[in-house]
């Protein structure tokens, strides 16, 4: 599995950010999956006037690029459905869209005042790899990740003052014997992205292209015999994108 993690120096104009997304993906060919940051078109906090629908310009762009390049693309944005707003992480592969709504909204940043929390853990199977989708503050709640995924995808807007969260991401990789991919906002006060393997080894950068040794990881996971933990009150949903 070849993964490209792309940090974005997100601007205040969604159209500018969509152009940047397209430029960055086209400039780094050769991966199976591209992972973009949280609130990729607005940054955090996301103004409600920039909310989009599931047929809006950003979803259309991701589907266009996915079909053009035969790749999957992942990233979150502010989505409006009726009178509700969600921080929604999309996993797009051509015409298929899996999505996860952030469970743990960031109360210190007042995210919970305007957005509706999700209630489902979301898994995606793609090219024989099992992904768990998470957003930013979710990393602080390890019980959500105890589910034997191959790769945990975390999209974030972590500042340099919250870099301790990268330690938590590394812990999630080690305790679950899986890989963790963190696509984080870059520029200004933001700290770029990370890829962490199941032993805690990590690579950092604004653009990371890496190939995950799935067979090696699965052999080690079988030796540890990790149990799947069910979370009370949280439904598990799996999307098959193949």
How does this model look, in words?
By secondary structure, the chain is of the alpha/beta class. It has one domain: Nitrilase/N-carbamoyl-D-aminoacid amidohydrolase (4-Layer Sandwich). 21% of the residues lie in helices and 33% in strands. The chain contains four helices and 13 strands. It has a seven-stranded mixed beta sheet with strand order 11-10-9-8-7-6-13, with helices on one face. Strands 5-4-3-2-1-12 form a six-stranded mixed beta sheet. β6 and β7 form a beta hairpin. The mean pLDDT is 93.
Assigned CATH architecture: 4-Layer Sandwich
Spatial strand sequence of the major β-sheet: 11-10-9-8-7-6-13
Helix content: 10-25%
Multimerization state: single chain
The number of helical segments is 4
Number of strands: 13
One letter per element, helices H and strands E, the order comes to: EHEHEEEEEEHEEEEHE
The count of domains is: 1
Uncertain residue segments:
none
Q: Averaged pLDDT, please?
A: 93
- The structure class reads alpha/beta
Radius of gyration: 16 Å
CATH topology: Nitrilase/N-carbamoyl-D-aminoacid amidohydrolase
Q: How can the largest sheet be summarized?
A: 7 strands, mixed
Query: Which CATH top level class fits?
Result: Alpha Beta
CATH H-level superfamily: Carbon-nitrogen hydrolase
Ends distance? 14 Å
Given the C-alpha coordinates, what overall shape results?
globular
Strand content: 25-35%
């Amino acid at each position: 599995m070849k993964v490209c993690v792309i940090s974005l120096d997100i601007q205040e104009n969604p159209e500018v950010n969509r152009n940047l997304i397209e430029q960055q993906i086209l400039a780094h060919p050769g991966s199976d999956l591209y992972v973009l940051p949280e609130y990729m078109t607005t940054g955090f906090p996301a103004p409600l006037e920039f909310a989009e629908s599931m047929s809006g310009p950003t979803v259309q762009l991701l589907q266009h690029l996915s079909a053009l390049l035969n790749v999957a693309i992942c990233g979150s944005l502010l989505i409006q459905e009726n009178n509700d707003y969600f921080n929604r992480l999309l996993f797009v592969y051509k015409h298929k869209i899996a999505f996860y709504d952030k469970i743990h909204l960031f109360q210190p940043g007042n995210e919970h005042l305007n957005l509706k929390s999700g209630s489902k853990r979301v898994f995606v199977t793609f090219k024989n790899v099992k992904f768990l989708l998470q957003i930013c503050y979710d990393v602080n709640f390890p019980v959500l990740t105890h589910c034997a995924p191959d790769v945990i995808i975390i999209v974030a807007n972590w500042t340099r003052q919250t870099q301790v969260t990268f330690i938590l991401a590394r812990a999630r990789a080690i305790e679950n014997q899986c890989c963790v991919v963190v696509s984080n906002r870059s520029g200004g006060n933001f700290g770029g992205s990370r890829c962490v393997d199941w032993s805690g080894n990590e690579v950092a950068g604004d653009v990371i292209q890496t190939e995950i040794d799935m067979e090696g990881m699965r052999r080690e996971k079988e030796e540890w015999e990790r149990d799947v933990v069910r979370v009370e009150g949280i439904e598990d949903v799996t999307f098959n994108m193949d």
